[in-house]
Structure formats: structure tokens, C-alpha cells
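> forwarded from #structure-qc
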């Protein structure tokens, strides 16, 4: 039944179009690999890539996100995990806003208190 619609709780969707967005979360790889990882992620159909902000084990988050933004066209991006003790929330917000303004795309970011 191509084109039929089904209800999934409060959501309705057309066959072949699930109301699910799939993202990939990963630490920043070597910066020389980030462009390739981003392109493969986008071609594979993922909606979002989130890079962890783990300064002691990974490369700089916002350098990695810049490479993601420059080498993709539809992939959303943003920090997956960040530490508000080592990166103040206002600094993270400014960095993400600057990146999005530079590439004229939007991403996602958020802090969660644990």
C-alpha cells in the first residue's frame, strides 16, 4: 500500500517515512578524518552528527564541527557532550553561534544539569 498513512501515537506518517531522526554521536577523530566521516555520515542518511567535547581525549570540538559544516550540506551538527566546568556555557554558545553564522546553517546544542 504505497502512500498509505498510519498513526503512531500522536504522529501520523506516510509509508516509507518514519517520524524518526537518527543521529550519530562520536568523539572528534583526528581532524584530517573529520571531513570524510561527515560526508559518509550524511550519505548514509543520518540527520545529525554530534561530537563530544572531551578535551583530554579528543580534538577540539569546534574545529571538528567546522570541518563537518564545511563538508556537508544537509547534516545537522552540534556538541553531543560538553563540560560546563571546563567550557563555560556562554563560551560554548558563542562558539556555536559563530560557527552557524559562518556557514549559514543551524545546529543543535544544549546543556543538561545532572
Amino acid at each position: 500500500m504505497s502512500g498509505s498513512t498510519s498513526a503512531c501515537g500522536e504522529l501520523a506518517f506516510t509509508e516509507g517515512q518514519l517520524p524518526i531522526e537518527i543521529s550519530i554521536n562520536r568523539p572528534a577523530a583526528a581532524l584530517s578524518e573529520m571531513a570524510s566521516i561527515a560526508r559518509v555520515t550524511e550519505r548514509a542518511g543520518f540527520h545529525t552528527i554530534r561530537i563530544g567535547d572531551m578535551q583530554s581525549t579528543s580534538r577540539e570540538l569546534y574545529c571538528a564541527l567546522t570541518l563537518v559544516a564545511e563538508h556537508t550540506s544537509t547534516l545537522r551538527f552540534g556538541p553531543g557532550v560538553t563540560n560546563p566546568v571546563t567550557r563555560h556555557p556562554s563560551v560554548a554558545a558563542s562558539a556555536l553561534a559563530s560557527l552557524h553564522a559562518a556557514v549559514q546553517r543551524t545546529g543543535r546544542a544544549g546543556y543538561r544539569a545532572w
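QC bot note: The first strand starts at residue 5 and ends at 8. The chain has one domain: 21-103.
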